[in-house]
Design goal:
By secondary structure, this protein is of the alpha/beta class. About 50% of the residues lie in helices and about 15% in strands. It has one domain (about 1-205): Glucose-6-phosphate isomerase like protein, domain 1 (Rossmann fold, 3-Layer(aba) Sandwich), CATH 3.40.50.10490. It has helices at about 1-20, 25-40, 50-65, 85-95, 100-105, 135-145, 160-165, 180-205, and strands at about 45-50, 75-80, 115, 125, 130, 150-155, 165-170. The protein has a five-stranded parallel beta sheet, with helices on both faces. It has a two-stranded antiparallel ribbon with strand order 4-5. The longest helix is centred in the last third of the chain and has 25 residues, at about 180-205. The termini are far apart.
């Protein structure tokens, strides 16, 4: 139990350190892109794999519902992770790398925004090959169509950090430590921050 108490103390201390080291400017840029899309009446799409898929669904929910203000148009947000039947059909027929691009192709328009959530941002690999190449493909489609890409990532940010118009990277601690739990946990912190500020901006807007 002493070891567990020490782990809890270390984890929470790292959490506080990561919060302090988070880029305020990157968060502000992400908020600006999303608010500009709202004002222009554009659509926002979210995507991710694994735990990041769950975070992408949660983010789309909060963008669509939590930011709603009486008398103002609603922000249009859709998660590309929520239709299990469609995702399994696309995986079966076109491959897992196409599950997001195939959904975006008939609907993504100039000025729309794609939010990519990923722990590694497309860098690294495992038994199935390079990680999150479906996100990288979706980001490329969004850029090619004249849209904006917002990244919520960790570690070095990977390809998503290089492609994004705004990218918030969960920073490492001073010792260089990071972890998937910290990255995915902070993506939730960041997304609630984004939605809270968007709600304020929408309430103050003339739209």
């Amino acid at each position: 139990m002493d070891d567990t108490a020490a782990f809890v103390d270390r984890y929470l201390a790292e959490t506080a350190e990561i919060a302090a080291r988070t880029s305020r400017g990157d968060l502000a840029r992400a908020i600006t892109i999303l608010f500009e899309a709202y004002r222009a009446g554009r659509d926002v799409y979210t995507c991710g794999n694994g735990g990041s898929a769950a975070n992408a669904s949660h983010l789309a929910c909060d963008l669509a519902k939590f930011t709603a203000c009486e008398g103002k148009p609603r922000l249009r947000a859709t998660s590309l992770c929520d239709n299990a039947a469609l995702i399994s059909a696309l995986t079966n027929d076109e491959g897992f790398g196409r599950i997001f691009t195939a959904q975006l192709e008939p609907r993504f328009r100039e000025g729309d925004v794609l939010v990519c959530l990923s722990v590694h941002g497309g860098s690294g690999a495992d038994k199935a090959g390079p990680w999150s190449q479906n996100l990288v493909a979706a980001a490329k489609l969004a850029k090619d169509r004249g849209g904006k890409v917002v990244g919520l990532v960790g570690y070095d940010g990977g390809a998503i950090a290089q492609m994004a118009d705004a990218c918030v990277i969960v920073p490492r601690t001073e010792t260089g430590h990071t972890s998937t739990p910290h990255v995915e946990g902070f993506h939730e912190v960041y997304h609630h921050l984004l939605c809270e500020r968007l709600r304020q901006l929408i309430a103050l807007s003339s739209g």
